[in-house]
Amino acid sequence: MRPQARGLLQVLREPRRSILLVAGFRQIGKSTIIEQLADQIDIPAYVAPYETSLRLDRIESAWQHARSSFGRDRAVLFIDDVDESPGWAETAATLWDDDTCAGRRLHVVLVGSVVGITSERTEHHLADRSEVHFLPYWSATEMREAFGWDIDRFIFYGGLPGAASVMDNPAKDNPAKDNPAKDNPAYRLRSGLSDERDVHARWVRFIRSSVVERAISRDILQNVRLNKPTLIGRLFELCCRHSGDIVPYAHMLRALRDVGNTTTLAYHLRLLSAAGLATGVPKYRGEDIRKRASSPKLQVINSGLVSALSGITFREARADRGVWDRLTRAAVGAHLVNSGVGGHNRLYYWLDRGREVDFVVESGGRRSERHRLEDHLRAIELRIGDISGTMRGIFAFGETFPPVERVTVGRSSPRTVGRTSSRRFSSGNQQVSVERFLFERVNTRNRA
After folding, report:
1. CA–CA separation, 51 vs 352, rounded Å?
2. Where are the alpha helices (DSSP H) in 127-171?
3. Sign, CA torsion 44/11/136/270
4. Where does residue 18 rank: exposed (0-12), middle (13-18), buried (19+ CB within 10 A)?
5. What share of the chain is helix, strand, coil (3-state, %, to 5)?
6. Cα gap 378→303, rounded to integer Å
7. CA end-to-end span of the chain, whole Å?
8. Exposed (0-12), middle (13-18) or buried (19+): which is 306, by Cβ within 10 Å?
9. Radius of gyration over alpha carbons of the chain, in Å?
């Protein structure tokens, strides 16, 4: 069970207070979490069946069924894909208020996309009645524990458990874990896949159809009205090609053509971020009023999305140093983005007179002099690929915004890594390997 699911289970054991809204990205196991919660909760539970017709009264019908089944007893109602039902927020608000007035003790868990759950309409109707819990993509640790993946597979395929299920044999296309049986024609016949490219093509089709296309067509376009709906897909492809790059809005306007203005682009980037596809990391300035007035650093939220659109297989990517370095950078950035989903960590980059810091993590809340050293600012420098350049950016940042923790991720001597990696982002200068960094957990909460 994921840590977020355990948190939900704990809330459901508390007295009824508010509707639990669970917002998550595509193919991360939202339905599985519902089944786990219904199975482990110590009070009666009803999981509303999914209806492809998406009737207007689907929410009310499931709610009434739970009422008639449990009466005034403590119980839980789960409804998945709730944001695909028209007018669901208004209906849920009305039914919740009726239960409150009648003294019913029915807990309600509504699950949907981040775009639908966090929309303005939802906030208008449920702001005072709900508590939002976010489900990010799976971490490297979760993928290792569930599927036995090593760090290389995580970097290429990303934290998508739904996509992992379509892979045939975890060792089949991994040069580090060759499987002699894969060269046997009988083995290939039994698997139904002729070679590595067939496995890869199947995985790419899954990513494109079940993750990217559904996130755009259902999570975004069903919940938000856009004047130029084709722009969202083109912008996503641009983010994949330039993940980790600082791209001025003017350059994006020229590359995409006929897209309107920078405000339109910024809005579409926010939609892509809510859909779990890509985001624009803002520049850190230390002044809240100016943080949005900068060129964004484009960043995919799952490195597997870059791999799926790259057209190369795992083996080919692993053999190409430039491609692999780019994927590794995308995986580190995606790890930081997911660590802050729904929590209190905010992610930025920093650039001043040619001096750059790849990522700046700001942990909120603790700004008194006594606690400024604890979970305030972390400057993260990526030493991946060409490391011939200096590190003047990270030291300049520390001088401009003291105090700050400096973390270098990438190549280093084994002795240095072993000495520093056991301390998670402690104060001072830290140097950690990519593997250690991706398996570390950045402290954050996923309950809003």
Report:
1. 53
2. 140-147, 151-157, 161-164
3. positive
4. middle
5. 45, 15, 35
6. 22
7. 20
8. buried
9. 23
The answer to whether the peptide bond before residue 136 is cis (omega within 30 degrees of 0) is no
d(CA 392, CA 355): 7
In terms of DSSP bridges, do strands 297-300 and 278-281 run parallel, antiparallel, or are they unpaired? antiparallel
What is the three-class DSSP state of 283?
Answer: strand
Q: Which residues contact 225 (CB under 8 A, 6 or more apart)?
A: none
CB atoms under 10 Å from CB of 308, counted, come to: 24
- Paired tokens of 426: 């402690």
Nearest to 13 by CA among 45, 43, 47: 43
The token pair at 343 is 């929590």
Q: Pick from 7, 25, 1: which is nearest to 334 by CA?
A: 25
C-beta separation of 87 from 56 below 8 A: yes
Contacts 24+ apart (CB under 8 A), 191-200: 193/168, 196/172, 196/313, 196/314, 196/315, 197/313, 199/167, 199/168, 199/172, 199/173, 200/173, 200/313, 200/314
In 3-state terms, what secondary structure has residue 375?
A: coil
Pairs from 315-319 (Cβ < 8 Å, separation ≥ 24): 315/173, 315/175, 315/196, 317/156, 318/152, 318/156, 318/175
Tell me the pLDDT of the chain (448 aa) as tens digits. 899 999 999 999 999 999 999 999 999 999 999 999 999 999 999 999 877 555 668 899 999 999 999 999 999 999 999 998 888 999 999 999 999 999 999 999 999 999 999 988 888 999 899 999 999 999 999 999 999 999 999 999 999 998 888 774 444 444 444 444 444 444 443 444 456 778 889 999 999 999 999 999 999 998 898 988 899 999 999 999 999 999 999 999 999 987 778 899 999 999 999 999 999 999 998 865 555 568 999 999 999 999 999 989 999 999 999 999 999 999 999 999 998 876 778 999 999 988 999 999 998 654 444 444 444 789 999 988 766 666 788 889 988 888 788 999 986 433 333 333 333 333 467 889 999 999 976 544 455 5
Q: Which residue has the tokens 């830290």?
A: 430
Would you state the structure tokens that stand for residue 75, as one six-digit string?
Answer: 């119980």
Looking at residue 257, its amino acid is: R
One-letter identity of residue 108: V
